[in-house]
Amino acid sequence: MIMSFFDQFASPCLLGIPLILLSMLFPTLLLPAPNNRWITNRLSTLQLWLLDLITKQLMTPLDKKGHKWAIILTSLAMLLLTINLLGLLPYTFTPTTQLSMNMALAFPLWLATLLTGLRNQPSISLGHLLPEGTPTPLIPALIMIETTSLLIRPLALGVRLTANLTAGHLLIQLISTATTVLLPIMPTVSILTTMILFLLTILEVAVAMIQAYVFVLLLSLYLQENI
Questions:
Q1: Which DSSP helix (H) or strand (E) runs through 14?
Q2: Which residues are listed as membrane-spanning (predicted)?
């Protein structure tokens, strides 16, 4: 029973071929296709409005130099948002519950922001490792601490996204299992558990959207430090 709770996080396979790549590419089919008309229907209007809203929120804390990253950050936000939300559907697989995938997204983008700062303003980027006015005896220790905090940023990004989504999926499965088990024994308790499950599902929808936004927002803040 304990192992079955974690089976949902195993990558599905067909004839020995992992289908995680297919589950990552499927959300792109939901994005509006290029068309000669700007507004084709209400769904396209809603999608374009959402893209515009996300782009404004991500680009607000950035200078004009950082606006070159608008396409990358907005595309990443939409990808994570659709993957997280589709993963809440029954009998689906959520790729963002895999730490390897989240690290594969976080590490290259974090490294790109770091290299951008070292190329454009190396003195300022290196100056972040040592706060101004630090006493001389504390300089070696602070440099080590700041360097460590800098290097664990991509790990924190990946672990945060993985842990929040994994915990939510586990809670939903545990409560749904309890609802099914209690139904023939204690119907009243089972109905109350179903209400809790409904509220938890709404909470997980909010968590899925918030975590996608936080992931990209932190990347944009890292970028702001280096431009």
A1: strand 13-14
A2: 69-89, 101-118, 138-158, 170-189, 195-223
Condensed to tens digits (0 to 9), the pLDDT of residues 141-193 reads 888 888 888 889 999 999 999 999 988 888 888 888 888 888 888 888 888 98
Residue in 87, 91, 57 with CA at minimum distance from that of residue 74: 57
Paired tokens of 220: 């944009």
Contacts of residue 67, Cβ cutoff 8 Å, sequence gap at least 6? 59
Q: pLDDT-derived band of residue 110, with 50, 70 and 90 as boundaries?
A: very high
The string of DSSP letters for 188-212 reads HHHHHHHHHHHHHHHHHHHHHHHHH
Confidence at residue 186, expressed as pLDDT on a 0 to 100 scale: 87
Backbone angles phi, psi at 177, to 5 degrees: -65, -40
